[in-house]
Design brief:
This is Transposase. It comes from Paraburkholderia xenovorans (strain LB400). Belongs to the transposase IS21/IS408/IS1162 family. It is a single chain. By secondary structure, the protein is an alpha+beta fold. It folds into five domains: 63 residues; 45 residues, no CATH class; 176 residues, 2-Layer Sandwich (Nucleotidyltransferase, domain 5); 71 residues, no CATH class; 106 residues, no CATH class. The protein is 41% helix and 15% strand. The chain contains 19 helices and 14 strands. The strands form four sheets. Strands 3-2-1-4-7 form a five-stranded mixed β-sheet, with helices on both faces. The longest helix is centred in the middle third of the chain and has 16 residues. The N and C termini lie far apart (70 Å). The C terminus is likely disordered.
Length: 517
């Protein structure tokens, strides 16, 4: 069975997380489900090609693949480097004052004349080795590294004005790993907008972005909750990319992966929800205001076994290490897989949006927000539109259409009717029929232009006579007029003399009884 090919979209995320988030190989592997060997390979390819994140960020997936494929192959050492004794490093680090820098210098001094690892490689070797130790050992939480998130099991009823329960609010809880600084808020449910909205509110509460988001494993965020290689949903991927961070969901049925937030949930239930048990709330805003006041009290309450408070630890540890928030708050987006139709449009919720005509019949993704629709191809935005909720209507950018279609866009119903009237009454009647008997006027433009263009070959008089005959026989279509002209039937006497009063048939292909006289 052939091996699964890693997409360029994942490779681009690998490079982003390594270069902008400074994550280890194993953290990137856990967040994206990419093998360690693949990560190393593409980092070497990018380095050989002289690429950095500033050069890679604006590239499409196809452009990135082209650069990496044409770049220099990863360099290999002439000889094998001396591997350090990671068990010795781990043991020596327990001694007071011993650092990795000191141990690296001793490792180099102990191997004179040999090919040794550089300091960064030395640290990475030890870090990767330490990750293989027993999972139940106490976790070390570094400043600004991880934000743990989950929902409490308890809910809070929101009442309507008659005293009945309108709905039950769910309580979102987030905890920073190093300081235990806690955030909580109420949401209407635990759907994707609630999860992502809670994470955004938490980061804005902390005033910065951590390197890793560690939520539970909810279907709202994870499209494939695999124990070893969970796959983020498209909306979740878009969200973490916007905040230039990574998401490493906890493994199913492994509460130790998110022990911090498990304790945080317990504290919120005991110190906040228990205090609100006798209160009545009539809106989420009212409940969130009460929660915010009690969260402030919780974060300023002294630790029982440690010195200081959560807020003091946050100010000293996590706050300086958090990366700044982006200038624009993330807007929840959904993604739809679409195919560009032959008319250079895609359909989103019954409305039609144009895409470059070079993508006809190709598969694209539509990124849909509350106010906009973006068309993405190969990870690159190719079209942007304001969102419309008018079903059956079209939003078209002229530049997206072929040159011949752009000429059609210059035509309007009134201009076509005037052109038809310049030929004759019958020609105008058929143009009006073509415009008014379609779901959308633009759908009749091509037929009208085809009809009126017949005057160049056959002349206005013959075209008017053919239109008159088409009305009499009840077939007011461009194809019928063309057939009449080709067969010369327009030169024959009409089946009926006198004034012509045409009425639209039930269907344009129904010719009517007069046709058979």
């Amino acid at each position: 069975m052939p091996a699964h090919r890693t997409t360029m979209r994942k490779i681009k995320d690998v490079l982003r997380l390594k270069w902008t988030c400074n994550l280890s190989h194993r953290q990137v592997s856990g967040a994206l489900g990419v093998g360690l060997g693949t990560i190393t390979q593409y980092l070497q390819l990018a380095a050989s090609a002289g690429l950095d994140w500033a050069k890679i960020e604006p590239l499409s997936e196809a452009e990135l693949e082209q650069l990496l494929v044409n770049g220099a192959a990863p360099t290999t050492a002439a000889g094998k480097r001396i591997e350090p004794d990671c068990a010795w490093i781990h043991r020596e680090l327990r001694r007071k004052g011993v650092t990795l820098q000191l141990l690296w210098e001793e490792y180099v001094a102990a191997n004179p004349g040999q090919r040794t690892l550089r300091y960064t490689q030395f640290c990475q070797r030890y870090k990767d080795w330490a990750q293989t130790l027993k999972r139940s050992m106490p976790q070390q939480h570094y400043a600004g590294e991880k934000l743990f998130a989950d929902y409490a099991g308890q809910t809070v009823p929101i009442l309507d004005r008659t005293g009945g329960i309108a709905f039950k609010a769910h309580i979102f809880v987030a905890v920073l790993g190093a300081s235990n600084y806690t955030y909580a808020c109420a949401t209407r449910s635990e759907a994707t907008p609630d999860w992502i909205g809670g994470l955004i509110d938490a980061m804005e509460f902390y005033g910065g972005v951590p390197r890793l988001l560690v939520p539970d494993n909810p279907k709202a965020l994870i499209s494939n909750a695999d124990r070893y290689e969970p796959t983020l949903g498209l909306t979740t991927q878009d969200f973490v990319s916007h905040y230039d961070t990574a998401m490493l969901p906890a493994r199913p049925r492994k509460p130790k992966d998110k022990a911090k937030v498990e304790v945080g949930v317990q504290i919120v239930e005991r110190w906040i929800l228990a205090r609100l048990r006798n209160h009545r709330f009539y809106s989420l805003a009212e409940l969130n205001k009460a929660i915010a006041g009690l969260i402030n009290d919780l974060n300023t309450r002294p630790f029982k076994k440690l010195e200081g408070t959560r807020r003091e630890w946050f100010e000293r540890l996590d706050k300086p290490a958090l990366r700044p928030l982006p200038t624009r708050r993330y807007e929840i987006a959904t993604f739809q897989k679409c195919r560009v139709n032959i008319d250079s449009h895609i359909e989103v919720d019954g409305h039609y949006y144009s895409a470059p005509h070079s993508l006809v019949r190709q598969e694209v993704h539509a990124r849909v927000t509350r106010y906009g629709v973006e068309v993405l191809h190969g990870g690159k935005r190719v079209a942007t539109h304001a969102r419309s909720r008018l079903k059956g209507k079209y939003t078209t950018v002229a530049e997206h259409m072929p040159a011949a279609y752009r000429a059609h866009l210059e035509w309007t119903p009134s201009r076509l009717l005037n052109w038809g009237a310049s030929i004759g009454v019958s020609a105008e009647a058929i143009v009006r029929h073509l415009l008014t008997n379609r779901p959308h006027p633009e759908m009749g433009y091509r037929a009208c232009l085809g009809l009126l263009s017949l005057s160049r070959k056959y002349g206005k008089e013959r075209l008017e006579a053919a239109c008159q005959r088409a009305l009499v026989i009840g077939a007011p279509t461009q194809r019928s007029v063309r057939t009449i002209l080709q067969t010369g039937s327009d030169k024959q006497p009409l089946p009926q003399s006198g004034a012509i009063e045409w009425q639209s048939p039930l269907h344009e292909n129904v010719r009517g009884p007069k046709y058979y006289h």
